[in-house]
């Protein structure tokens, strides 16, 4: 199978120039991508494609380009994770509960990318209501990893990562509640960023854990992430958790790009990371880290040192406690957020029931999958009378201590923190399906950032070892202080200019 037309250009910036110079049209790009999506249905990355809607957007982008009033992303083909509500396309959160639902409005992230001229190719598969680490919890079947169809793509944004890795889109939207941008990006060999909590609007994003959820992009490179993150970041008065200012600067489009450009401009030619202190947490390199992943991360750290960075040993002593804290707080918030799906106003309603209470119970039992039900039950339990203080309140106290660990390291010992994204490469489909605790442990290195609200970038840095794992990617995580997205992406870009991991593509069929 030949790759879509947009893959012939070296990133979104090059694609934008080609469109502006009329060397290619938005309609041509869209038609080529739609054909590729149809040819790769085996990946199950897309849940809803509507060529008529896509081509209408492409024609509008071409008209804007011809008139000289095009937005920054005019004609660039993207797709949206199925937790962002969209007019025209179905929004199901990969759940039977919302099967067939079409929103009357767009999420802010969707709205801002559309205003920039991006062309949507459809809605991407994910774990149901963004609950999962493997994309096996989707009511519409699992997504397959383009590098190895026997492997999971990671989750919950597995469809976004797989679509980018397979070259079906130039970039995709995603969400990160406990690692759901960074982990699938790592397992699929692409790049992804979880911004600081509150810098990107959550309006129109179907909620899982409201104090943890944050939207961000997945793309092939750090430069592409800048192109996508910059226009969606900014204050939104419709979102109560949206920030007006980022460390004294207005939270607005242009902030991330300006910081990225400033960091890259200040970098020297020979040793561009000269003097950068990279903190390496000893807790990230314990017995749970697979040997092949550790070797790839060590090689990446050596490359950063070669580029001028200084390695500093740091400690994040409460890393292991992020799992119990997260799996109290996130289910508690999910229990509250998902209570609205009762079969009364919208969503699935059981065809047969005795009374109102039975209708609600049957509708929820039929509409929600096993993992969602498990988390609702856990969340309801920890919020119940007699257990709130013992579980939920203690988890929130622990959350504060985890955030303080990061602040101690980032504001006293190092400039950024670097380590693995996942303790292993992608595992086989079905391998952990009957062991939810093992699945939860796969997020050991990512959960703490969401609890602290910090930004983090995942970039490819190698592959596992052996006949099977040797074709499964490894991701490097770079963690910064609040509102540090531009610098994180600048560091990632310098690494990517010195290596070729992000330019490697999975084999085509």
From TrEMBL:
This protein's name: Glutamyl-tRNA(Gln) amidotransferase subunit A
Catalytic machinery residues: 81, 156, 180
EC number: 6.3.5.7
Purpose: Allows the formation of correctly charged Gln-tRNA(Gln) through the transamidation of misacylated Glu-tRNA(Gln) in organisms which lack glutaminyl-tRNA synthetase. The reaction takes place in the presence of glutamine and ATP through an activated gamma-phospho-Glu-tRNA(Gln).
All copies of domain Amidase, residue ranges: 29-489
Keyword annotations: ATP-binding, Ligase, Nucleotide-binding, Protein biosynthesis
Family from the record: Belongs to the amidase family. GatA subfamily.
Entries under SUPFAM superfamilies matching the protein: Amidase signature (AS) enzymes
Superkingdom assignment: Bacteria
Entry keyword annotation includes Hydrolase: no
Catalysed reaction, written as an equation: L-glutamyl-tRNA(Gln) + L-glutamine + ATP + H2O = L-glutaminyl-tRNA(Gln) + L-glutamate + ADP + phosphate + H(+)
